[in-house]
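Pipeline run #58 for the internal structure catalog. This entry was flagged by the ingest filter as a single-chain record with no existing model, so it goes straight to prediction. Upstream metadata was stripped on purpose; only the residue string is passed forward. Reviewer on rotation: M.T. Logging verbosity set to normal.
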Amino acid sequence: MRKLFITDIHGEYNGMMKLLEHADFQPSSDQLVIGGDMVSRGNDSGLVLKGVRRLALQHPTNVVALMGNHEEMMSWYFQGKSDLWLRHAGKHTLSKVKKTFRQENELQEHVAWAASLPLLHQDHQYVYTHAGIVPYVSM
């Protein structure tokens, strides 16, 4: 099984698709871990969320998505906890995301999915995460 890890897609749907095509990604036989920051900055954050979520739901044993700081900030914004996301590329992204998700319930469903993603994934060889981890530190 090939293992692919990509991160910091930042709303670049076409770039993500070209990368997966170039790698000849086969979801039935390859492992794909998407290491967070799927949203913000690029014009197609909504399409990236839809595409990654669809892949993860269709291939739950081979496709894993992780939460990055931009998914976390986005979820805080939609939960009314913080507007930090708006100050870190969310302001540009928000209008584009709303165009992708014309129905509020579909947008909320995808935001809730992104907010529920784990911070790390581990297999028998590697530990995957968006940001660094400090080993052997108890919280």
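catalog note: The two ends are 34 Å apart (CA to CA).
catalog note: The chain has a mean pLDDT of 94.
status: ready for reviewer M.T.
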